[in-house]
From TrEMBL:
Pfam families: LytR_C. InterPro entries: LytR/CpsA/Psr_C. It comes from the Bacteria. Residues 161-255 form the LytR/CpsA/Psr regulator C-terminal domain. It comes from Candidatus Daviesbacteria bacterium GW2011_GWB1_36_5. This is LytR/CpsA/Psr regulator C-terminal domain-containing protein.
């Protein structure tokens, strides 16, 4: 288990055109919208910062509670601590997802936990803003290196399937953004390209039917095109169909809207 502590003072550019803010201000900023989007804006922002999909949000109501490391250790020692934890949080995880998270975390030994506090690492640096306030800037290259060394999924590296990412929108840079996410997860992206045709909905395609059962395909489809998990998606673009990659991700307007449209 890897625990990444992100200081409220970390300063970053938010998705959806909200400008640059401290992490500690993101949730409240989203709650000012109608309808309120505090949780979604925070998840998207952290996802953009670390270059990883964020499955869910767990908010501790009492900030004086033990650290995450101590909480996990407490679950292992005393199962009743898990009930105390459940009463003290709010979350957008489903009951099944929350159960799986607590169950898997409870089996982790202290020596299996890697922790990094961004504020106390060389990944962040103090920055002075025009209003004379100080914030923490993030070195994305160093952060990505830490994530790939400590958080990437070993199953994906073991499968070692090749991926192609096609940008089927008129918006530049989307394929590179998706590549960062896939690479941080531990996937092997070998092709980045654009298509002439514009798609509204993203697709995830596989060269062979058996590849649909791999973790690489399922994780890719879960993030980019959940509908391609239940049914086989197809492409009508010869450039995409001729890709030599085993799994192909085609980014549609929905991927752009997720990050850039309010």
């Amino acid at each position: 288990m890897t625990i990444l502590h992100i200081s409220d003072d970390v300063f970053m550019e938010l998705p959806k055109g909200y400008g640059s803010w401290k992490v500690g201000s993101i949730y409240d900023l989203g709650q000012e919208e109608k309808p309120q989007i505090g949780s979604n804006l925070l998840k998207l922002s952290i996802s953009k910062l670390v270059g990883l999909p964020i499955d869910g949000l767990i908010i501790q109501k009492d900030l004086s509670q033990p650290s995450v490391e101590d909480l996990v250790g407490g679950w292992r020692k005393n199962p009743f601590n898990r009930l105390t934890f459940l009463r003290s949080i709010s979350t957008d995880l489903t009951p099944i997802e929350l159960y799986k998270f607590i169950k898997s975390s409870s089996s982790v030994r202290p020596d299996q936990i890697t922790s990094l506090n961004l504020a106390q690492s060389n990944i962040t640096r103090s920055q002075l803003l025009p209003d004379s306030s100080r914030v923490l800037g993030v070195d994305t290259i160093k952060l990505d290196t830490f994530i790939r060394d400590n958080i990437s999924d070993p199953t994906l590296s073991e499968e070692d399937l090749t991926l192609a990412i096609f940008n089927a929108t008129p918006h530049p840079g989307l394929a590179q953004q998706a590549q960062r996410i896939m690479t941080n997860l531990g996937m092997n992206v070998i092709i980045l390209a654009n298509t002439e045709k514009v798609l509204e909905k993203s697709l995830v395609l596989s060269k062979e039917d058996k590849l649909r059962e791999t973790v690489t395909f399922k994780k890719s489809a879960q993030f980019f095109a959940p509908s391609c998990i239940k049914k086989t998606c197809i492409s009508n673009d010869s450039k995409i169909d001729s890709s030599r990659a085993q799994i192909t991700i085609v980014l549609g307007e929905d991927f752009y809207n997720l990050w850039y449209s309010k």
